[in-house]
Amino acid sequence: MSVVNISSKEQFNSLLNSSYFVVADFYADWCGPCKAIAPVYDSLARQLTRPNHITFTKVNGDQQRDLAQAYSVRAYPTFLVFQNGRKIETVQGADPRKLNEVIQRLASEASKSDGAGGDAGEGNGANGGWLGAAVPKGYGDITDQVDLTGLELLNRDSERGMPRSLFETAKPSALSGKGKGKGKAEGGGSPDWVESDTDEQLMLYIPFQSNIKVHSLHVTSVPPAAGEDEDADDDELPMRPKTVSLYTNRSQVLGFDEADDIPAVQTVEIKPEDWDSKTATAKIDLRFVKFQNVTSLVVFFVDGDGDSEKLRVDRIRIIGEAGEKRTMGKLEKIGDEPGE
After folding, report:
1. Are strands 194-195 and 152-154 parallel, antiparallel or unpaired?
2. What amino acid positions are annotated as catalytic residues?
3. Where is the Thioredoxin domain (predicted)?
4. What residues are paired with 313 via a beta bridge?
5. Stretch 102-111: mean pLDDT, rounded?
6. Which has the higher per-residue pLDDT, 160 or 259?
């Protein structure tokens, strides 16, 4: 069968993680335009379905209300296209020409991306970008939910990258053979990582565009080996993070003294064996029940795995589930509204 009928949120999330592209047709049994365009959708699915690469699904919005709400589906039919678990395209209404255009473009992109996947090591994350570790079944890379304009990072070295560097989708330059740990961002410019300044601590405030559920964090750190950074003495080379404390739903960044007085939601110690030798990434598993309705995250890098006064972080990826956007524009009636 070319089209997969979705019977649960877990089934849908599993497909998002196992198929490079997923197309979802959100419909309702009582929706006239849904029935009119169904043959067009089914025909495209029969022609273009490719196992684990392009998957076509149908989601009954009345039966799967949690999915409809999670992806802000407010009119039927609505067609959503996902790449590596991230929504990249929306077609609202029974418009065969538009639907065919979007799906054919997707098929063309898919033909260029054979072999791209989400395996541990060097997979694809949000925006088809780089991931340093495997994403567990049922969850996705939701780093694109980070509100980059609201980021704050205390005690960073102003000459070593910007906070938003941590959330770039490109592979860290230090892993690309560009400068042996002194790599620059794509196209040159400032370093694409951050380092601490006066001591080894960093305090990062991450606001999100929606209420999210956080399953785990991927932290990448590629400190240079002795002799690779001519700008620093060997005893000043930055370390990888060791102790990380997490705080949720704060309205602003915490001060270092303030963090000492507030119990963390979770504190994690990253052991040397937790760092993947190929991707320089450690996966931090969280107590999922404590990270269910998160609007912001404070990540406090407390110390490092050595005696240096410097700490380095190259990338952070957020793994979990994205909810409905907290700020929504005016809704337009397209086709049939749910419940009509």
Report:
1. unpaired
2. 31, 34
3. 1-108
4. 194
5. 78
6. 259
